[in-house]
């Protein structure tokens, strides 16, 4: 179904709208793109109604969008990120990735991690978003990493900048953010 300038606006009803949706789906458009097209059609028909060009505006559904914001790193993605850090001499970003994936701590707290925040097999987080101190038990990977741990010299903005630079150079999924490390944990 092609709703274009050649379609009589008075003939646009549910049957034609459904054909249009089917045509958009057959082109493998993502739900957000289908919704953008339907919104444009809805606005066009509403304007036509307000100008008395049509008697009523047909119901135009919104295509359901499955929330895809949260992303979990695959082992391959994590490995490529760590390899990129080594190849580009980005030890602090490498530490952020290792700590984030193995503790689930937010990036703002990762930057405070040091040997002083490690106590008896736990990472102690004293200041955080919820103002509630908590402890995270260290897994084997994290315990094995401790001898390599160096104090952080970068700040939050620099960490985000480096992460996004790496993400772009590796052509990673756009949904991957530093917070993805927490979701991966």
How does this model look, in words?
This protein has 185 residues and is mainly α. 49% of the residues lie in helices and 5% in strands. It has 8 helices and 3 strands, in the order αααααβββααα. A 3-stranded antiparallel beta sheet has the order 1-2-3, with no helix packed on it. A hairpin with an 8-residue loop joins strand 2 (122-125) and strand 3 (134-137). Helix 3 packs antiparallel against helix 4 (91-103) and helix 4 runs parallel beside helix 8. The longest helix has 20 residues, at 31-50. It is elongated. It starts with 13 loop residues before the first helix and ends with a helix. 21% of the residues are buried. The mean pLDDT is 89.
Span of the ends, CA to CA: 46 Å
Helix residue percentage: 40-55%
Any idea what the radius of gyration is? 25 Å
Order of helices and strands: HHHHHEEEHHH
* Uncertain ranges: none
Strand content: 5-15%
Task: Please state the overall shape, judged from the principal axes of the Cα atoms.
Answer: elongated
Q: How large is the count of helical segments?
A: 8
Can you summarize this structure?
The chain is mainly α and 185 residues long.
Give descriptors for this structure.
mainly alpha; 8 helices; 185 residues; 3-stranded antiparallel β-sheet; single chain
List the helices and strands and how they pair.
Blueprint: H1 14-26, H2 31-50, H3 75-87, H4 91-103, H5 107-110, E1 118-119, E2 122-125, E3 134-137, H6 140-145, H7 156-170, H8 178-184
Antiparallel strand pairs: 1-2, 2-3
Helix pairs in contact: 3-4, 4-8
């Amino acid at each position: 179904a092609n709703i274009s300038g050649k379609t009589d606006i008075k003939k646009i009803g549910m049957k034609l709208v459904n054909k249009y949706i089917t045509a958009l789906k057959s082109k493998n458009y993502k739900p957000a793109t289908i919704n953008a097209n339907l919104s444009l059609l809805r606005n066009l028909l509403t304007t036509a109604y307000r100008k008395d060009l049509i008697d009523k505006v047909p119901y135009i559904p919104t295509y359901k969008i499955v929330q895809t914001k949260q992303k979990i790193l695959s082992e391959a993605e994590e490995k490529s990120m760590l390899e990129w850090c080594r190849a580009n001499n980005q030890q602090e970003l490498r530490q952020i990735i290792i700590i984030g994936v193995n503790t689930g701590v937010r990036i703002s707290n990762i930057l405070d991690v040091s040997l002083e925040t490690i106590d008896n097999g736990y990472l102690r987080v004293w200041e955080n978003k919820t103002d509630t101190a908590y402890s995270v038990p260290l897994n084997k990977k994290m315990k094995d990493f401790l001898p390599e741990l160096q104090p952080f010299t970068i700040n939050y903005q620099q960490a985000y900048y480096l992460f996004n630079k790496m993400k772009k150079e590796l052509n990673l999924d756009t949904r991957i953010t530093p917070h993805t490390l927490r979701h991966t944990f």
